[in-house]
Amino acid sequence: MDPTPQLPSLDLFSLAGHNALITGATRGIGAACAIALAEAGANICLVQRPGTTNNSTRDAIATLGRTVKVVECDLSDLEAVKSIFPQALDAMGGEIHVLVNCAGIQRRSPAVQFPEGDWDDVINVNLKSVWLLSQAAGQHMVPRRRGKIINFCSLLTFQGGLTVPAYAAAKGALGQLTKALSNEWSKDNVQVNGICPGYIATDMNERLLQDPVRLRQISERIPAGRWGEPRDFAGPVVFLASKASQYICGELLVVDGGWMGR
């Protein structure tokens, strides 16, 4: 692994000249991360579902003067997922320096009733698509001896949750996948880490936010006294994508307002 460069501390966070590929950036945490990476200097390739009409992330990045490209893919189509990285390389001039796996879906149902189709959908999108993209990234980054892979895990990487068995299984496995890839690729100067969001006010948690009992129970347990917001991930994602985190490998960075500390 290369040592941390002898640069002024703030320069370690610069992503100027870097190309980042990110999934799940149409809205919420992914959008905030894509914009933050662009603010730090990176050019961005967004993975979006076919037919997406929300172009606010793309427009925000373009306003910053960065190059922004789009690859369309339904992440539940695993054969199509295999084409993402080659398309991104072509769009970004043959170089990807950072991969951020942020896309994810949720299905809620009591375990005794949980549909097999929902299980397969969640595992495929939240785990297998991440594996396929990470493997493709490793094949590109390892020979070049440089790269950053950031996987979005969850509090359910550590906890079981309620009525979300597939999501908990996928995110638990994703934490272990992050460590496994780090164990192999750190020596090749490719850092693989995870970010574990706590309770964040996004569309995925809309049912919880609309349930007054669960909302109160969760809110009372967060030491910070509030739910997180997408912008709370701007600093962590830039940190893990930059040379500032050169010696951080296989880490699962919890961003939860103190939840896990309880």
UniProtKB/TrEMBL annotation:
PROSITE patterns: ADH_SHORT. This is NAD(P)-binding protein. Keywords: NADP, Oxidoreductase. GO terms for molecular function: oxidoreductase activity, acting on the CH-OH group of donors, NAD or NADP as acceptor. It comes from Wolfiporia cocos (strain MD-104). Residues 18-188 form the Ketoreductase domain. InterPro entries: KR_dom, NAD(P)-bd_dom_sf, Sc_DH/Rdtase_CS, SDR_fam. The keyword Oxidoreductase applies. Belongs to the short-chain dehydrogenases/reductases (SDR) family.
